[in-house]
């Protein structure tokens, strides 16, 4: 596993320790992490604070997102995928999409390269969370 996905997993674990949903994200440019984030819907009582959104907010105003790569432990939802497209991020690497299919096709239709690692650690983390906290998970995905 590469160091950037490991960093995204660390963010997911941080969110879980805080009582939130274990989804993490990092933004990489020129081979360096320039921002990190994790799902904070529970912690901030904010339905919009998904991991990718938190990560991009934490990046601040970086000007152009040209050449950046967004890593996420879970396939981005349509809201986060829309942000990826809006910011012209051309590559997204995800840990898994088994527990949530997300918006891979949407991103691909808009010229984003989507790489799904189908990572066992990411899958296991989400499966355990969904099993233990189904109500919170269903709230997160709008069920």
Would you kindly provide a written description of the structure presented here, covering whatever features stand out?
The protein has helices spanning 3-17, 51-59, 78-86, 104-109, 120-132, 134-140, and strands at residues 24-29, 32-38, 68-72, 91-94, 113-116. It has 143 residues and is of the alpha/beta class. The protein starts with a helix and ends with a helix.
> What's the end-to-end separation, in Å?
32 Å
Radius of gyration: 14 Å
The main sheet comes to: 5 strands, mixed
Q: What spatial form do the alpha-carbon principal axes imply? A: globular
Mean pLDDT metric: 95
- Helix percentage: 40-55%
**Total number of β-strand segments?**
5
List the total number of helices: 6
Structural class designation: alpha/beta
In N-to-C order, the SSE pattern is HEEHEHEHEHH
Low-confidence stretches: none
Strand order within the widest sheet? 2-1-3-4-5
- Beta-strand share of residues: 15-25%
Q: Summed up, what is this model?
A:
This protein has 143 residues and is an alpha/beta fold. 41% of the residues lie in helices and 18% in strands.
